[in-house]
UniProtKB/TrEMBL annotation:
Gene3D superfamilies: Spore Coat Polysaccharide Biosynthesis Protein SpsA, Chain A
Annotated protein name in UniProt: Glycosyltransferase family 2 protein
EC supergroup of this enzyme: transferase
Entry keyword Glycosyltransferase: yes
Keywords linked to the UniProt accession: Glycosyltransferase, Membrane, Transferase, Transmembrane, Transmembrane helix
Residues in Glycosyltransferase 2-like domain copies: 153-262
Record EC number: 2.4.-.-
Organism for this UniProt entry: Bizionia sediminis
Transmembrane segments: 90-107, 403-423
């Protein structure tokens, strides 16, 4: 990352890693067109001119720059004062204090840390997300790809959710884009073949006895006839332009993946950056269109995540590292109902950090497998410290900052138990790392 202190706040962020070609995602500022730099906010209060430049580069990516400007291959060390100024601008004060205390606990020079922290006290919070970069030509863009009507394969794994799957299929019937097939991998008990009769859709139902989400998706990828694979969940709702919005996004940005935004009925607040196009730093297999060529290049989903979490996050990072462009697409929305029955709630856990039992691993071992495999043990530990305390509070309170803060204090009281949970997860993740990835090729 361009600013060193980001490692405490975003230790396992996609953009912390170089791609396989040796370059980061952040553009070299003097390579950006003036139409982009004119929409950025220069900050002359940094002590270093290089800090000012890195800040603009970081802004460009966060505000939605998607282009072919040259990107940085390395970042030089910046003054500590500039690092504190940077995190003061873009993160809540509580997180800045968190970094300071963490640095103290790490035996950094307390006088230098306090001086840099105190010296940044007059830094104003940035409202940069209120002024994202504008892609003015997008609205009037006539997509050649959309006009060619390529075959799309919509892939839906399902488990004991026929009530909700009915609405999913009705939404697909209403799509204004018609050249698509639907592959439903049904793991339900009892299986209801008659349920699929009467829909005005090209449906292929794949019966799968084993309750395994990533096996289901991999099986569907192998059977898909389309060159574009659209992954969907069985408890979601979309509008009639959903498929066409994904295709147009791929065409306009010459992208390989279109990550539609997911609006959840429960859980955390909707992030501000869901409202505009940007290079995506995540992948949600409940709403993403992927060129089939990506699977030919990097393989299928890793089955080490079976019955656990973050398999889609791993696939997103794997595609990012290989240089594929994944665009966060605000025009391809879905409402994620997160219903309280069926799906992952029956075959495993639907939350990566919240446990069902007192002595269960926290977080799920697949999370630490992912973190340690790509970011290393040090950054995995930073991620655990950053995220686990908030997982004490139930998921439904994620929008309540007071309850989340309470979770931190409770986690301190329960520190011995939490430590045991993390150690269990770490050991199980170690087993996964020794076993290695379970990624089949698409041939």
């Amino acid at each position: 990352m361009p600013f060193h202190l980001l490692k405490y706040l975003q230790p396992t962020h996609y953009f912390a890693l170089k791609k396989r070609d040796g370059a980061f995602v952040f553009p070299v500022v003097d390579q950006l067109p003036s139409a982009i730099t004119n929409q950025l906010e220069p900050d002359t209060s940094f002590k270093s001119a290089l800090s000012q430049t890195y800040d603009l580069s970081w802004q460009a990516i966060q505000k939605g720059y998607i282009g072919d400007a040259a990107t940085y291959q390395h970042f030089e060390a910046l003054p500590l004062a500039d690092n504190y100024r940077f995190i003061r601008k873009y993160f809540h004060l509580a997180w800045v204090v968190y970094v300071l205390l963490f640095r103290f606990a790490s035996l950094k020079n307390p006088f230098k840390e306090w001086r840099a922290f105190y010296g940044s006290r007059h830094t104003a919070s940035s409202c940069y997300l209120e002024t994202p970069l504008v892609h003015t030509a997008y609205a009037g863009f006539e997509s050649d790809l959309l006009a060619r009507q390529p075959k799309v394969s919509v892939i839906i794994p399902t488990l004991n959710r026929y009530v909700f799957l009915k609405d999913v299929l009705k939404d697909l019937e209403a799509q204004d884009y018609t050249n698509f097939e639907v592959l439903v991998v049904d793991q339900s008990e009892p299986f209801q073949q008659a349920f699929y009769e009467g829909y005005n859709l090209d449906i292929q139902v794949i019966r799968q006895d084993q309750k395994a989400l990533w096996l289901a998706r991999n099986t569907a990828v192998k059977k898909a006839a389309g060159d574009y694979l659209l992954f969907f969940d069985d408890d979601s709702r979309v509008d009639a332009k959903w498929i066409s919005a994904h295709i147009k996004c791929l065409d306009y940005f010459n992208a390989d993946l279109s990550s539609g935004v997911s609006i959840s009925k429960v859980g955390a607040e909707i992030p501000a950056n869901y409202s505009f196009f940007r290079v995506s730093d995540q992948l949600d297999t409940g709403n993403v269109l992927i060129k089939k060529t990506v699977f030919y290049k990097i393989g299928l989903f890793d089955r080490q995540f079976e019955r656990q979490r973050m398999g889609d996050g791993e696939y997103g990072l794997r595609s990012y590292l290989q240089g594929f462009l994944n665009v966060s697409n605000p025009q391809a929305k879905r409402l994620h109902l997160k219903v309280d029955s069926g799906g992952l709630r029956e075959m495993g856990s639907w939350d990566a950090f919240r446990t069902k039992k007192w002595f269960a691993p926290r977080p799920l071992p697949s999370v630490l497998y992912f973190f340690r495999k790509y970011f290393g043990d040090k950054f995995a530990i930073l991620a655990v410290i950053r995220t686990v305390p908030f997982s004490i509070i139930p998921y439904k309170y994620k929008k309540n900052k007071g309850m989340m803060l309470l979770g931190v204090f409770i986690s301190i009281l329960l520190l011995p138990l939490v430590f045991i949970q993390v150690i269990k997860s770490w050991r199980l993740a170690s087993t996964k790392l020794i076993e290695g990835a379970k990624i089949d090729s698409l041939v």
